[in-house]
Amino acid sequence: MRHFPEPFRIKTVEPIKVTTREYREAAIREAGYNTFLLKSEDVFIDLLTDSGTSAMSDAQWAALQLGDEAYAGSRNFYDLEKAIQDIFGYRYVVPTHQGRAAEHIMSKLLIKAGDWVPGNMYFTTTRLHQELAGGNFVDVIIDEAHDPTNAHPFKGNVDLAKLQKLVDRVGPDKIPYISYETCVNMAGGQPISMANLRELREFCDHHGIKIMLDNTRTVENAYFIQKREQGYADKSIKEIVREICAYTDGCTCSAKKDGLVNMGGFLAMNDEDFFVEAKAQVVIYEGLHTYGGMSGRDMAALAQGIREAVATDDYIKYRVEQTNYLGELLTAGEVPHVIPHGGHAIFLDARRFLRHIEQEQFPAQSLAAAIFVETGVRAMERGNVSAGRDPKTGENRRPALELVRLTIPRRVYTQSHMDYTAEGIINLYQKREQLRGLRFVFEPKQLRFFQARFEPIAGD
Q1: Of 51, 116, 155, 225, most Cβ neighbours within 10 A?
Q2: Which residues fall within 8 angstroms of residue 161, CB to CB, at 6 or more apart?
């Protein structure tokens, strides 16, 4: 079987617009060659992100009708709290409207000016919150993560030697926590291993350092552990998720991914003092501590989504294998991309795809725009533009990975959509020499990939 079939039936459909190449050329020019600035109605297959783009189940839609919109003490909060405690095991829960709000509160409370925050590769909003709080991010991911051709099964792992070097240099008192992400997004959706997490737990206990988990894609990571790590083949996804969280001190979570909802997130922890302070902060920035920026109906859908994600192993098997199916099609077409395939997306290697375009001319941004013109598929740049500029030097950070992310929304697209996407990208690869680099027309100071505008650099 080439693809594990969808473990659900389709009950509702949404029409999508089919456009011409000329129409798409005009649309991308209007958007400044930034796929974030395209109108969704002009997109045929939207692979920009899996954040908040999932299809909800019949049980989740039914849960919306049971929303308790009380300002304080909503019963939906207590159900959500119980779901998080049961599935992830944390004692205390602070709801937020999405993951970056949880990052903001955590960074504000735990980081002091001059602190150092190691992590297994950066994520855009996570690093920005750390820097705004006065911290300095340090990448301690294993070297294999920066090589898109390396087939290491757990490229999200922390290099403990790198971490020890940082501790020796700055001291453990200057490290409030390690930021530990499951299925590391910027590395190509690469998982961590349970063995690495256990070793990290021992290291952090020795030095008195917290482990704060980016819990956004832990369910997907659990699938890779089940399939690749010795001793876990007979454990359920639910059991593996619980074990991952048990080795950490708390988490932030954008529930718009594994939580199968369009909006929602949370900050969770085991430390009561941290919890009390976080509740005070969420009231200032989000809403009361029993809704935190979500409506009652949002919390009802999220509680149901958290439970559905681990109710059986079938859902996550389908979800990850659909992503792998797209990757296998691109492999057959000899399109360069990150291996092994991640859980939520296939990441095209723009450096190898467009060898004739220098990194300062933003090959990943150029490729994402070209994919839209060629196919109507919207993808996302994850390279030089996303990395931003060094705040001290003002120079582009020039990451080793210059990628275009094809992100698969959950329970939304069929195998035929993956076939169409792969065919179009393979066709584009065969005429890749025609593509040109880009230059900025407008560049925001922070998180520039969301709003920047570009123009093509004229060819010879």
Answers
A1: 155
A2: none
Does 372 participate in catalysis according to the annotation? no
Q: Does 214 participate in catalysis according to the annotation?
A: yes
For the segment 209-254, what is each residue's pLDDT rounded down to a tens digit? 999 999 999 999 999 999 999 999 999 999 999 999 999 999 999 9
List 238, 257, 297, 378, catalytic entry: 257
pTM for this one? 0.95
Is residue 382 annotated as part of the catalytic site, yes or no? yes
Q: Is the peptide bond before 340 cis (omega within 30 degrees of 0)?
A: yes
Which of 77, 275, 362, 449 is catalytic? The answer is: 449
State the SS3 of 60-122: HHHHHCCCCCCCCCCHHHHHHHHHHHHHHCCCEEEEECCHHHHHHHHHHHHCCCCCEEEECCC
Region of residue 119 (phi > 0: left; psi between -120 and 50: alpha; otherwise: beta) = beta
Domains annotated on the chain, with CATH: 21-50+314-456 (3.90.1150.10), 58-311 (3.40.640.10)
**Is the Cα torsion angle 46, 354, 419, 191 positive or negative in sign?**
negative
